[in-house]
Structure to design on (128 residues):
């Protein structure tokens, strides 16, 4: 049963995920104020980052979706703490941030949102 970091493919999915994680969202101890999703900056692999190269975000799964809801002033590819910049994407929670997208340092411990293939109930029919 393989899973992957979730694709947030539309507004409804974004709202449903935020509803699910709202209770523990703004929490430094449990999730460091954010949850990883399956969007990343594919233009900056750690070994070949080129300064000034524009970010190019893509989903790790179902790459055709281009839905993105960035927090104000994001993505900013902040490289103050890591010269590789920020190449992974979280749903960002702070008292003033409510789960919009933010690029973040990939090594940060965070919560995460995974998704799994929907299993068709018909697969098990006839086995009982
Ligand atoms: Ca970046
Ligand atoms: Ca950022």
């Amino acid at each position: 049963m393989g899973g992957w970091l979730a694709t947030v493919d539309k507004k409804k999915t974004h709202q449903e995920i935020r509803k699910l994680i709202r209770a523990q969202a703004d929490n430094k101890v449990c999730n460091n104020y954010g949850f990883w999703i399956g969007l990343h900056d594919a233009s900056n692999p750690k070994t070949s980052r080129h300064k000034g190269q524009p970010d190019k975000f893509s989903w790790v799964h179902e790459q055709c979706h281009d839905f993105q809801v960035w927090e104000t002033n994001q993505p900013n590819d902040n490289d103050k703490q890591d010269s590789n910049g920020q190449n992974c994407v979280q749903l960002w929670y702070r008292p003033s941030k409510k789960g919009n997208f933010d690029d973040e340092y990939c090594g940060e411990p965070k919560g995460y949102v995974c998704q799994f293939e929907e299993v068709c109930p018909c697969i098990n029919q006839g086995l009982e």
